[in-house]
Amino acid sequence: MKFVSFFAGIGGIDLGLERAGHECVGQVEINPFCQKVLAKHWPDTWRHDDITTLRAEDIPGADLWAGGFPCQDISTSGKRAGIHGERSGLFFDWMRLVREIRPGYLLLENVAALLHNGMGDVLGELAAGGYDAEWSCLPACDVGAPHRRDRVFVIANAPDKRPIASAKGVQAKGLPREFGGVPWREGIFRMDQPLVVGDRDGLPAYFHRNEALGNAVVPAVAEYIGRLLMEADK
Predict the structure, then answer these.
(1) Angle at the Cα of 125 (from 179 to 15), degrees rounded to 5?
(2) DSSP conformation class of 17
(3) Collapsing DSSP states into helix, strand and coil, what is residue 71?
(4) Residue 150 and residue 167: Cα distance in Å, rounded?
């Protein structure tokens, strides 16, 4: 199915969903370095820089909206302002657009701390918008990455769409029961091509690269979820 990626970063979710057979038709990302990475790997894709200025009518048509909204106010390493904080609160700007367009499926990602610092608000907003939701905490090591990297993934479906719990034939040992499982080939979590070298702003090139990688979703996790969505939508 076609999807639009919000808070796209360097495209970890986008790459994973495309590996599962989905098509990226739009991206929203405000970070200049990440914009360069996206432009390198998706040169012909529609793109917008700021979700607060984005109009619903300008978003390309898509069955799936995906994105990892900012975690800075939710993370245990931050100031813990919560989901209503200045940065994590952009989730509500995203929901404004969701209510206007009502895509069939939604995929959200955030740090594990969301489970006890904002999850009720997320689920409440989704329910108020008419969506049913499923969620699980998936570590990157379950898809072959050499680190844990726990992340919460929420998948929501409109009333006329099947929940991913209905997906069949995507089973494998070692992945949480809530989301079934899928076999992974070694090295799938790595980017296929090198990232763009950093900006000319006086900072070392690796500074921007490491920051972008630190915020990115491991593509293999997104691919696994993308396969579940493909199966549920059959």
Answers:
(1) 45
(2) H
(3) coil
(4) 23
Residue 194 maps to which CATH number?
A: 3.40.50.150
Confirm whether pTM is higher than 0.85: no
pLDDT tens, 134-188?
A: 998 888 777 777 777 788 999 999 999 988 877 765 543 334 434 444 333 333 3
What sign for the dihedral angle of Cα 226, 135, 67, 26?
Answer: positive
Q: Is 150 exposed, middle or buried (0-12, 13-18, 19+ CB in 10 A)?
A: middle
Rounded to the nearest angstrom, the gap between the alpha carbon of residue 179 and the centroid of all alpha carbons in its chain is: 16
Q: Is the pLDDT of residue 20 over 80?
A: yes
Question: Domain count of the chain?
Answer: 1
Estimate the crossing angle of helix 219-232 against helix 12-19, to 10 degrees: 50
Rounded distance, CA 81 to CA 88, Å? 9
| Three-state secondary structure call for residue 122 | helix
- Those residues whose C-beta lies under 8 Å from the C-beta of residue 29, and which sit 6 or more positions away, are 5, 7, 8, 9, 35, 38, 47, 49
Question: Would you state the structure tokens that stand for residue 95, as one six-digit string?
Answer: 């929901």
* CB of 42 closer than 8 Å to CB of 10: no
Q: What is the span of the domain harbouring residue 211?
A: 2-232
Active-site positions read: 71
Token output for 112: 């594990």
Phi/psi for 178 (5° steps) reads -60, -35
- Please count the helices (runs of H) and the strands (runs of E) in the chain: 6, 7
CA 170 remoteness from chain centre = 20
Q: How far apart are CA 234 and CA 224, in angstroms?
A: 16
